[in-house]
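SRPBCC family protein
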Amino acid sequence: MHTVTKAIEVEVPVSVAYNQWTQFESFPRFMSGVEDVRQIDDATLHFSTKISGVKREYNARITEQVPDTVISWESLDQPRNAGSVRFDALGPDRSGVSVTLEWEPETLTEKAGAALSADEMQVAADLDKFKDFIEDRQRETGAWRGTVGGAAADGSGPVRRDAAEGGTMPGTPLEGGAMEDGAPNI
C-alpha cells in the first residue's frame, strides 16, 4: 500500500468544513478524477472515477465518522484504498483539514505516478480546491451529524443519528429543504 498525507487550513469554522465533507455527492466539484459519488446508505458510497484515463467504479464503507473530528473509509472492492479526513478547530473561524490516503497502485502508470509523488500533488491540489470551494461559499451545502463506527450507546448498531440535527442521511440538503442552487428539494 502507498500512503499519502496532506493537510490544509481553511478559513471557516470546523463544523462548516466537516459538514461539507459529509456531502459526498459534491466531491466531483473539488476532487479531480471523481466523476460521481452516490450515497447508498448511511455508511456506504458508490464511486465512479476516471484517473489517468482509467475508469473505475467501486463501493466504499465509512468505518468511522465523528462530527467535527473524523471521517474514515475503506473500499469494499478494487481498487483497494482506505483513508481518513481529520478536522481540527484552529480558532472560531479557522480549521485544519488533514487527509491520509492509502491505496494500492495497480497499473504501471499508477505505480510510476506514486513513485514520482503525483498522487501527493493531486491530493494537495484537491485540498486547495476544497479550500477555495468552502471559503468562497462560507457555508456548507448540507450536513449530516450522525456517528458511524462502534456500537451505539443503546447497543443497536454502528450508525447513530443526532436527533438535534435531524439525523438526515448524508447528502441531504441543509438549508430548509432547498438545494444548493436555491431550488426546492422536491
